[in-house]
Amino acid sequence: MDVHGRLYIAGEWTPAADGALFGTRDPADGQALGTCAEAGRADVDAAVDAARRALDDPSWAGLTAAERARLLWRVAELIERDAAELAELETRDQGQPLAVARGVSVAGAAEHFRYYAGWATKIEGSVAPVSFPGTLHFTRREPVGVCALITPWNFPLMIAAWKMAPALACGNTVVVKPAEQTPLTTLHLVRLCEEAGFPPGAVNLLTGGPGTGRALVGHPGVDKVSFTGSTEVGREIVRASADDLKRVTLELGGKAPSIVARDADIDAAVQGNVQGALLNSGQVCAAYARFYVDRRRAQEFTEKLAAAVAGLRLGPGLSPDTQLGPLVTEEHLHRVDALVRRGVAEGAELVTGGGRAGEGPLEHGNFYRPTVFAGVVDEMAIARQEVFGPVLPVLTYEDEDELAARANDTPFGLAAAVWTRDLSTAHRLAEDIRAGAVFVNMPAVPDPAAPWGGFRSSGWGREMGSYALDVFTETKGVWIHHG
Hints:
Elements: E1 3-5, E2 7-9, E3 12-14, E4 21-25, E5 32-37, H1 41-56, H2 58-61, H3 65-81, H4 83-94, H5 98-119, E6 127-128, E7 135-143, E8 146-150, H6 156-169, E9 173-177, H7 184-196, E10 203-205, H8 210-217, E11 224-228, H9 231-241, E12 247-251, E13 256-260, H10 266-278, E14 288-294, H11 295-310, H12 330-345, E15 349-352, E16 371-374, H13 381-384, E17 391-397, H14 403-407, E18 415-419, H15 423-432, E19 437-440, E20 459-460, H16 467-471, E21 473-481
Parallel strand pairs: 1-5, 8-9, 8-11, 9-10, 11-12, 13-14, 13-18, 14-17, 16-17, 18-19
Antiparallel strand pairs: 2-3, 4-5, 6-7, 7-21, 12-20, 15-16
Helix pairs in contact: 3-5, 3-7, 4-5, 5-6, 10-11
């Protein structure tokens, strides 16, 4: 594979103004996949200017809602047409198993474009019975404007779709900036938007590193920033957006608790927690990342969990029998390993895993063995910090009355899970846990129709469902006096 990516600005594919490039590598073997343009400040200026011009250009601003819907629907069709190519590209660039790339990333991207194609014709205002006599008051839902969409490296294609589809359905123009580690499927997606017929400037693409993102966030021509990534960078974006009060939506880190009640079906809980914790090698913001298990069931749960993860097959994502792929970069692998080493130093019991898998065909990739810890207490780093890797710490509890407080003792609040056969336990914990989504007896599975986002340091606002329309529109009140 030898990909040469360019920037897409005002309907043209172009190199960076200064000719700068960066490379992207396959995390399974370290081999170079290709090069992309490194956007500088001049490129950011050009992309934002193109997006702002397109806001008032009749070729975009003059489209009816039904015409916008047809464009989005066409993108969904093109994603499905190129599904095999996109899945392989996502696997090579990000590392996720090909089955995940096909069934989650590519399928999810298509479904989001199709879902918001349906919403484009249903973005409505309302009439309010105001008290001023002889006056009609109604509201209009209007585009926010130029939207900077900054996506992470763990699900680059699908999360780009999460942002692009509702932003475009609402009539905004967008400048997309994928993570520098995994830009290739976003490049392809923007090519599909061009093929679908989006007019010049409606969709723009900038590739590059943190400097590109900072220039985009700080640009005075950007009206809104939608970012998915780390809490640390999210705080930086808020600070950079403060001077001109940009609209900001953030989907940030998580440390999802998974509660296994005394009455839970342990086998089902083990299976579901393996899925919920190790999808994409644990590189998921909503990954189940700390397990609270009734002390009387803890040994059984831990032994079965350790056996289940130890039996998973590690390998390159393109290998048909791979169940767990590599971590995205060598740097990230070292960060995960440092937290594992800290867990051991703080007294947690390492049950299985705990190191790099670097032998034989895995020796040149970023593979880490799935790791289970027992004897973990709430104060340990592996129970508090987001690892973003295949690390599963098991904690115990004596009384269900303590669970909500312990689950909520975190700066995060993105997702949580409860495993129980008792309906009252499920409802009580779902009410008491402060998280944007609580999953009962199932792994965390986003859906275009359901809101996605977090409490506290897990972010601001919601993506998906009708909630995404709220963050990509402004509400205008119109008063017409006819008395």
